[in-house]
Amino acid sequence: MSIKQSIIDGSEQLGIPLSSRAIEQLTAYLALLERWNRAYNLTAVRDPEAMVVRHVLDSLSIWPWIEGPCVLDVGSGAGLPGIPLAIARPECGFCLLDSNGKRTRFLIQATAELHLKNIEVVRSRVEDYRPTTLFDNVVSRAFSTLADLLADAGRLCAPEGQLLAMKGVFPDEELARLPPDYILVGVYPLHIPGLEAERHLVHLAPAPASRD
Question: Does pTM surpass 0.85?
Answer without folding.
Answer: yes
